[in-house]
Design a protein that fits this description.
The protein is mainly α. The chain has one domain. The chain contains three helices and no strands.
């Protein structure tokens, strides 16, 4: 799944730099941000589950 987030982010970055889209940079990096949040949530849940006794 990380390849999809990276691919979309790169495509959006190139489109933004070429002037094809006029999105804010927040929208351009949204796929990477969403993937990072998902990974962070999984890590937190794993950490809580590992030390729950």
């Amino acid at each position: 799944m990380s390849w999809l987030a990276v691919l979309l982010t790169v495509i959006f970055m190139v489109a933004k730099l070429l002037g094809i889209i006029a999105w804010s940079w927040w929208l351009v990096f949204t796929p990477a941000i969403i993937y990072g949040v998902i990974v962070l949530v999984i890590l937190i849940i794993t950490f809580i589950a590992a030390f729950k006794d």
